[in-house]
Each structure stands twice: as structure tokens, then as C-alpha cells.
């Protein structure tokens, strides 16, 4: 279970961290005024400052028990968390598999795994859908629009 | 009169067989993304964008804008039949549309929705026809300071009127700016904010951001809620369609008021979602039958639908004439314009007459095509709703992954897209608005360039932003909008010190 407050805090820390990274990185470009006008780092530096200040404000609002937060104390219930993971983890694995297996094989495996392993579809139907997905991608991108999708290290090793 | 002549010329471009076919395809695809939960107009348009790179700009924009109309209509279908808003902007339509459909009057509800939507869109297009070139002429007098002032006004109005918590809007905007700054700086040529990752020199494409924020993010929000789609009969009785449309003029006041709200919110970047909620809220307050709202009132459907479409259409006016998108979808389309080699803004009306007027004419035709198709396809899409979510979800993921990769053949983009997905989910969940984030990613660089060019002109003095009437008005209006939420809060505290809580929750509802 994740409370609304924890989620607010995590998001504020995330945005604030991004802000700090932006500030630090923009200092390399120089901030302020030079003979060539406003220096390149100035604008990012300012946005970084705004992000950090805004995040601190959101952080403070998340820590203090505001009446709005009290009305929705729980942001994500355990069941919802499981559903989220059920969607996101396979998707992340799919993305991780692309450099090795290539887009076509990876997406076919992904569709098959998502449909067959939780038994949403029978194995033959899942296989058919997986094959159809890969084929549709190939026809639309490689053939119709001539966009080359990654074939993967595996295919390269096999000489494709 | 000039405008009418140009418009007629536009019709000769828009009403050709290939373009009509594109309209039908675009509208059908649009209805599809509008109907599918987890996909909306911004996603649909961004998913389709890579496929338009090789097209003529006119054809490409006709395809994309037709998809936009289709998505606006499609979103209402599921809202009314299943109580699932396929689009954020059709959330308000569920309040009265679904009760009416459940009472056994789905045809009336759908026909009323489509009829008023078409009216809203028509008002929006007429507004564009007569105002666009005028707005563009005024804008031709613009130099860098004026440009910056207009951008500033756009950003400020998001903070002041977007409906979200102001500080969250500011954070979203600033993050967008920072993301826009990643890569090579156009003024000095130096490399910025790559944080040591060489591949980031090319910058972060807004397509990657949009796919993650809207595609994956909305999917995560959708998977979290259970889908208990309980379909009501979706047969269409044709006579009832005409009867319902025929009854619309009786609600003339509501129609006109909602169209006005929609146009205003579309031009100032409040967007269709905010417009439909605002229109529904105002209708409930002013209608004589206001207390029956929520039980299937006709005006409860007319108001959000008219405003939604009026806003959706008029959002294209600032995009075309000033280069400022009025909605997230318009922001995505504007990115498309730049990719096709066009420069959105006043010069478009001089350099690319065919493009502009072809597009405006296609809006008239496209909306007629959309109304006809949406009525014909209601039974088909109702059947589509029976495809289980578990099958559709992985397909959406694959579309987003492939889309992100094909922008610049970069694997890093795919990983970033997934990251944007998490950000999109968190932001949606916690009511951070996404539209300002996208807006800043798309035009952040231009705003910065305008600011720095003005600074070069004035040798570093901010006085250039108050040098003439036009720029002063724009800047003052922007500052006023920025301070508006603060002023409202102070006024409220001053009047009755004890009840700020209820208002924040209603604000949070608005941006869902």
C-alpha cells in the first residue's frame, strides 16, 4: 500500500532531484551576461531553480497534513500495485530484450508471454496473436514505410 | 471578403478524392483512439506522426486533424455507452450522458452529444475562418520581444487558468523548459544539459515524451482501475437521431454559451478538458433544471460536448497564426509542422496559403465526415469494447516503443519513453498537469531564443518588454494571469477564512 502522502513526497523528491541536476549541469555553460548576450546556461539555471523551489513547496505541502490529502489518504492499494506491476514489469522486460532479440522477436515474445502466462488466452491463440503482431510490424514499418526497426544482436550473429 | 475567397480556394484543395480518403481514414483512426481507453487524441496524433514524414504537408495535416476530430467524437461514445471516458475531455459528458443511456435512451444521448459537438466545432471553425488571417496580420508586426511576450502569456495562462494547483503547473512547465534545453543550444551552439550522455546531444524529441507521458502513463492509470464495462444496447434508431438533433435549437442559450466558453478556452490554452468541465459547471449553476443535472439532463450533455469541440477546434487558431498551441494535441501537431519544414506562426499565412486554407476548408468537410462516420460506426465500436483490456494493453505498449524508436532510430529514446511513462503516471495520479509540460518541451526553445534575442537587442535591459503598447499589454496580461490564483486565494481567505479545502478538491477534479 502506498499512501497519497508518500507518493507526493516521492514525486517532489524526483522533480527536485531533476532540478538540482539541471542547475549543476547548467553551471558548466556559464550563467549570466557576457559579450555574446545571455549565456547558454542562464535559462536552464533559472528553470532549475524554479523546479527546486516548486518541488520544495510541493514537498512541504505533502509533509504537512493538508485537508485535501486527508480525504484521499491511500493513493495505490496493494491490488492496484499488483495490476500496475503486471503491466509495467513485462513492458520493461520487453524493452530490455530489444537490443538482444530485436524488435520483432521481442514483441512477439512479449505478446505471447503477457497473454499466455496469466492464462488470459489459450496457448495457440496467444501464439497466433504474437505472430500476427510481429508480422504486422514488419509489413507496416519495414515494407510500407521503409523504417528499419532494430533486428537485435541475435539476428546479427545469425547473419541477418 | 478576402477570407471567403481564400476559403473557396481552400475547398478546391481539401475536396479532392485523395484528401477525402485521408479524412475518412483519419476520422476512423481517430474514433478508434478516442474509443480506446488509454489512448486519446494527443496519443493518436503522435502515434501517427512518424507515418506522415514523407507526405505533403497539406495531406499530413488533413490526416492528423481529421484524426483529431474523430478522437473528439469517439471519446464521447464510450463516455455515454459505458461510462468510460475514452478521452480526458469527455469526462464531463459521462455525468449526464451515461444516466440517460442507462435509462434506455442511448440513441438520444449519442445524437444529442454529436449534434451539439458538431455545433461547437462549427463555431470554432467559423471563428478561425474570420479571425485567423487578422490575428496573423497583427502578429506580422511582431519582433522578438513581442514573441516572448506572447509565449509568456501562454505559459502564464496555463498557470492562471489551467485549473491545476498553480505550483504544480509551474513545476511541470519548468521541467518542460529544462527538457527543451537539452542538446545543442541554437543561439550559442554549445551543448547543454547532457549530463555526460553523448547521445543526448540531439535533444529529447517531444514525440518520445508524448508517447511516454500519454501512452504509457495513461495505460498505467487505466490498468489500475477495474474495467467493469457493462454495455447498454447500442442500436441506433435513425428517426430518434433526427428527432434529438431537431430538439437542439430549444437549448440555444446553452449551445451559444458553451460554444463561447469553448472558443475562449481553446484560444487561451485552457484546452478542451478544462472547457468542458467549466461549461458543465456553469450550465448547472444557470440552468432552470440545474438540480436535475446528473440524472440524464439534455443540457448536461450539450454543455460539455459543445465546449469540448469548440475548444478543440479553436485551439488550432493560435497554433496556426501565432505558433502557440492551445492544447496538447495542437502542441503535437505543431511539432509535426516543424518536422514537415513549415514554420508555424504569422508567416505561414503569407508563405503557405494553400496549406492554411486547405486545412481550414478541411475542417468544415472533416467535421461533416466525422459526424456521419461516428453515427454509422457506433455499433462497430461498441463491439470493439468487448476486446479484453489485457489484449489491447500490450499492443499499445508495442506501438509506443516502436514509435519512440522510429523518431531517430535510438534505443535510448525507448528507455526514456518508458521513464516518461512513469512520470506521466505519477503526474496524472497527483494532479500535475501534463499539457504545460508538453507545451514547454515544444516551444520552450523558441521562447528562450526570443528572450535572448530581445536581450541582445536591448543590450541586457528588461525595459524592452515595456517599449511599446503591444508588448506592454501582453506582458502585463501575462503577469496578471500569473498572479490570478494568488489573488483569488487571498480574496477567498479575506471573505471566509474557513473553507479552502472543498475548493481544492473541485480543482483537482477539473484536471482529471
Structure description:
- The complex is a heterodimer of chains A (160) and B (512).
- Chain A has 160 residues and is mainly α.
- Chain A folds into 2 domains: 2-76; 78-158, no CATH class.
- Chain A is 74% helix and 6% strand.
- Chain A contains 6 helices and 4 strands, in the order βαββααβααα.
- Chain A has a two-stranded antiparallel ribbon.
- In chain A, a hairpin with a 2-residue loop joins β2 and β3 (37-38).
- Chain A is flat and about 60 Å long.
- Chain A starts with a strand and ends with a helix.
- The mean pLDDT of chain A is 85.
- In chain B, α4 (57-82) packs antiparallel against α15 and α15 (328-339) crosses α20.
- By secondary structure, chain B is mainly α.
- Chain B has a two-stranded antiparallel sheet.
- Chain B has one domain.
- Chain B is 74% helix and 1% strand.
- Classes of the chains: A mainly alpha (160), B mainly alpha (512).
- Chains A and B meet through α1, β3, α2, α3 and α4 of A and α8, α9, α18, α19 and α20 of B.
Q: Which two chains form the greatest contact, residue counts included?
A: A-B, 68 and 62 residues
Determine the N-to-C terminus distance of chain B. 42 Å
List the uncertain runs of chain B: 498-512
| Oligomerization category of the chains in this entry | heterodimer
Instruction: Write the H/E string of chain B, N to C.
Output: HHHHHHHHEEHHHHHHHHHHHHHH
How many distinct beta strands of chain B? 2
3D shape of chain B: globular
Record the strand order, biggest sheet of chain B.
Answer: 1-2
Gap between N and C termini of chain A, in Å? 47 Å
Number of helices of chain B: 22
Mean pLDDT level of chain B: 80
Largest sheet of chain A: 2 strands, antiparallel
The computed structural class of chain A is mainly alpha
E-strand count of chain A:
4
**Gyration radius of chain B, in Å:** 22 Å
Write down the secondary-structure element order of chain A.
Answer: EHEEHHEHHH
Mean pLDDT level of chain A: 85
Tell me the β content of chain B: under 5%
